[in-house]
Design brief:
Blueprint (H helix, E strand, L loop, with lengths): L13 H10 L4 H9 L19
Length: 55
């Protein structure tokens, strides 16, 4: 049985998540299940062109 993973975990730096996975503090399965529950916010994305200069 996996350990409970809270939603704040996904806002943590991915290096910390990797370290917790390696240490057995969280499980990949729990992390995947939690990430599936996140809302799709891709409609909020804006296209950015690095060649465009702001004036």
């Amino acid at each position: 049985m996996g350990k409970k993973v809270n939603a704040e975990l996904l806002s943590i730096d991915k290096r910390i998540i990797s370290r917790k996975l390696l240490a057995g503090e969280i499980y990949e399965k729990d992390l995947q299940n939690l990430s599936k529950k996140l809302p799709d916010v891709s409609d909020n994305a804006e296209e950015v062109n690095p060649d465009d200069k702001e004036k």
